[in-house]
């Protein structure tokens, strides 16, 4: 945000109170000066004027955009969560192929996944199931929910594909399991500490 950009709300608001006599003088002075149609008679508020807490003022005055780094971390974290959920791009592509071969009712699948309100966005695309599954993945939809939806529609091949992918992921995660150090080395007999000898 540009901290010096003024909005259209004037800083000083004139009111029709008891001080009407005092306000006539500045209006006459303003009328005698040449008026620029592009320039407001009074300046507007800036973000710094509206910032009440010091934290917001510090953010507006800082030169480095810390918020964009924070947002990119969130995006990266959500994409990592989606990858960790077992629905990677390869699995998604294979599942789309399965749904295409079985001529799956993708609108019913969208309903089962709780995404029926978005079907109008997908229906004009060449592969509606792909867009549906991509949005399900980006929304952080659990693979278990997808398995249940496919199972309820009788799409056994899709269920089999996802379960095989889960098994492979489980196998990879146990192979890459790092021992914390306890039990990885033989424990030496320790002599009990004797107090006050």
Could you walk me through the main structural features you see in this protein, from its secondary elements to its overall organization?
With 197 residues, the protein is an all-alpha fold. The chain has two domains: 1-64, no CATH class; 78-175, Orthogonal Bundle (Death Domain, Fas). The chain is built from ten helices and no strands. The chain is elongated. Residues 63-84 have low confidence and may be disordered.
Our estimate of the beta-strand percent is: under 5%
The CATH superfamily label of the largest domain reads Death Domain, Fas
Distance between the terminal alpha carbons, to the nearest Å? 72 Å
Note the main sheet.
none
**CATH topology label of the largest domain:** Death Domain, Fas
Helix content: 55-70%
Instruction: Give the helices and strands as they follow along the chain.
Output: HHHHHHHHHH
> What is the highest CATH level, the class of the largest domain?
Mainly Alpha
Question: What is the alpha-carbon Rg in Å?
Answer: 32 Å
The structure class reads mainly alpha
**Shape-level CATH architecture of the largest domain:** Orthogonal Bundle
Q: Please, what is the average pLDDT? A: 69
Domain Death: 81-166
Biased composition (Acidic residues): 17-26, 187-197
Biased composition (Basic residues): 67-76
Biased composition (Basic and acidic residues): 164-178
